[in-house]
Amino acid sequence: MSSTVLKIAVNVPLSREFDYLPPKRGAPPATGCRVRVPFGRRHEIGLVLGHAADSSLPAAKIRRVDEVIDTSPVVAAAELRLIRFTSDYYHHPIGEVVSAAMPALLRQGKALHPTVEMLVITDLGEATDIETLATRAPRQGELLEYLLDAGGNGVDAERLGEELPNWRRAAKPLFDKGLIARIETRAADFDETLGCDAQTGPALNDDQRDALATLRCSDSFGAYLIDGVTGSGKTELYLTRMQDVINRGQQVLVLAPEIGLTPQLVSRLRQRLGIQPALLHSGRTDVERLTAWRAARSGAARLVVGTRSAIFTPLKNPGLIIVDEEHDHSFKQQEGLRYSARDLAIVRAKQLDIPVILGSATPTLEMLQHCRGGNYRHIRLPVRAGGARPPSVRLVDTMRSPARDGISETLATAITSHLDAGGQALVFLNRRGFAPTLICAACGHIAECGRCDSRLTVHARSRELRCHHCGAVRPLETRCGECGETVKPLGEGTQRLEEALRTRFPEKSVTRIDSDSMQQKGAMIEALDRATHGHADILVGTQMLSKGHHFPKLTLVGIVNADQGLFGTDFRSAERMAQSIVQVAGRAGRESRPGEVLIQTAFPDHPFWSTLIDGGYEKVSAEALAERELTRWPPFTRLALIRAAAHRHNDALGFLELAKNRAMRKADDSLRILGPVDAPMARKAGRYRTQLLLQSSDRQALHSLLRELRPALEEEPAARKVRWSIDVDPIELF
């Protein structure tokens, strides 16, 4: 063909680019522009990845682009390079990678500067007696009062939907009466000057000054692991290095593992740097995320803070990438495009030739091994900043001091002692709900999910049984469905702990922080604020409480049911258990008051405990690395997991048998194939799940195999009967 052919990525699960002709009129769209294209019977938004002089398809089969959306590229060459790497390394269709890398509104074909629907109160609405209206129509009164409080600028309809989910029904009569009006306006641009005046930070100690000197040794690419005990002042190093970069007129991208960490982090950034960060996480509206994305792209935002997907945010003047709590599993996407934002941060920093800083009190073994090999710089902060001492740690033998509703007498006594001294206590259990099991005392029948191979969790307050895997809900039963006898909850969850603590300490304030109690908008920020200012005497929660939070009055941490990871089948069990315990223990005694950690266990003589208590995380990680090297598990080999799920077990298993046979024909001696076998939870949400593990000591050989295997499997007729995926560097195996 003689005319230009456009190579276009379309959001479909096929590992290829699609050929289209440009529109008959006008110049062909540039690489990085969005277009609307016919795709089968649908019309899709695509991204131009490049131009070609010809196509392997017959001219008669190449269709034309319907519409060119952008006159100039919205995705620059640097971001396209990262997108191509992500697609190639994770063996995922490039159209789906492009979709994951762009804000939702751009994926939908909306303008880079979209108009937004705003609701405003009219003069007539301001003159209305809202109290009288509210007596007749409470929701109308609520909406009118909300708009009145918002002032003359009005409220974004998308944001209003989060605050008052059913506002549209209440709005119609208010529109009809002329009390409110709807206006279309261009979305406001980001303004980083909304921050407060910058404040001076504390003086750095010797370890921090040495670390800072290392970080400042180069502004080119280098990966720096800050391995600092909890409370050692890692954030102070981040802030100082950020200021260096911002003073040069460059941008900083900060990745945090979860939304729950961002309120405290953002507040601290504002105070110390004196500028407003551009925020990118799922708690923001689509318009707000696009506004922040656009500001990062233009350079108007010098500081960008986000969760996992923010790694794809365009930066006009990149200078530094920081990954806080690099060990956190939230950086690995577990559905769809299964990428690691931490690993992509390192790749992106190398592509941009800028430094990347990774911080953690419990670094992953992968990062530690990179440091051992000399690829990354290992910066240690062995002591807490400001003179704070590490907490004392002791075990509570629950065989000698039995736990009632999860709380042993030893732990209850310690809570009393710390509260009486003006301290604060945190009780940690990584299991939400009231109890993990509902069991019949007579016949032993256990309430199970009808769609998953899992037990239903008791949620006492809502009187429900819930499946934490597929979301199924049914009313809480009082009688056994098998024999008719009385049933009772077995085990503890955070709800049960909360009730037990309220009963034991009726005069104290108890606050539970888990994904069930923090569902309402703003609940997490409010709860953390109460905890930070000491208004909550006792905190109860899951992993959400262990990550990076600073509670000045907290002096006691009690870890309930610490034995969950002692006998795990996953080769990462010991590493993860140590990380969890060290992180939550690190919340205690971060200021002048000494901290104490009590760990309830039925196996106090297990060797894991002596390793952790005597040698800390450093000894646990050293022993785990030695064991991994001996047994040839990561980071000494590379893994890829192929998963399949289907309504019929034979369909899922049969598809992976095909994958195994194809892999064996291409494999060399470096490859080990395990399976296919049923997943640990063989049935989830009504589908049977199977998996095939590929393990290799040669990363290039593994990726070469996957590069041929994926398109071949897409062509298999059996693939139409299953949902399947390839997970490179999986963090969940068993």
Tell me what you see in this structure.
The chain is of the alpha/beta class and 734 residues long. It has five domains: 5-107, 3-Layer(aba) Sandwich (GIY-YIG endonuclease), CATH 3.40.1440; 115-186, no CATH class; 192-385, P-loop containing nucleotide triphosphate hydrolases (Rossmann fold, 3-Layer(aba) Sandwich), CATH 3.40.50; 388-435 and 491-627, Rossmann fold (3-Layer(aba) Sandwich), CATH 3.40.50.300; 638-728, 2-Layer Sandwich (Alpha-Beta Plaits). The protein is built from 21 helices and 32 strands. Strands 11-12-10-13-14-9-15 form a seven-stranded parallel beta sheet, with helices on both faces. Strands 16-28-27-19-26-25 form a six-stranded parallel beta sheet, with helices on both faces. The radius of gyration is 28 Å and the shape is globular.
Outline of this structure?
By secondary structure, this protein is α/β, with parallel strands linked by helices. It is 33% helix and 23% strand.
Range of helix content: 25-40%
Overall mean pLDDT stands at 88
**Count of alpha and pi helical runs:** 21
Strand adjacency order, main sheet: 11-12-10-13-14-9-15
Give the termini separation.
51 Å
Beta-strand level of the residues, as a percent range? 15-25%
Low-confidence stretches: none
CATH fold group of the largest domain: Rossmann fold
- Work out the count of structural domains: 5
Task: Give the radius of gyration.
Answer: 28 Å
